[in-house]
């Protein structure tokens, strides 16, 4: 697995890195399938660099008026 895909960040860190709320990240995951973070055996989400970059890109797109569902 390439280093950029290794799960390394928990949701709180991803929220701080992207400026998105933890709630919104969960909604985008569940409702729109925007990302698919890995999970630990206890269910903790682990995000890769690729996931973080994708969320940041989606945030910019929605700020420019694009709907997340498209």
Notes on the protein architecture:
The protein is mainly α and 70 residues long. The protein is 49% helix and 6% strand. The protein has three helices and two strands. The protein has a two-stranded antiparallel ribbon. A hairpin with a 5-residue loop joins strand 1 (38-39) and strand 2 (45-46). The protein is globular, with a radius of gyration of 12 Å. The mean pLDDT is 92.
Question: Which terms summarize this structure?
Answer:
single chain; mainly alpha; two-stranded antiparallel ribbon; 3 helices; 2 strands
Mean pLDDT: 92
Strand content: 5-15%
Give the beta-strand count: 2
The largest sheet is:
2 strands, antiparallel
Structural class, from helix and strand content?
A: mainly alpha
The helix content, as a percent range, equals 40-55%
* Order of strands across the main sheet: 1-2
Radius of gyration: 12 Å
Order of helices and strands: HHEEH
The first-to-last residue Cα distance is 29 Å
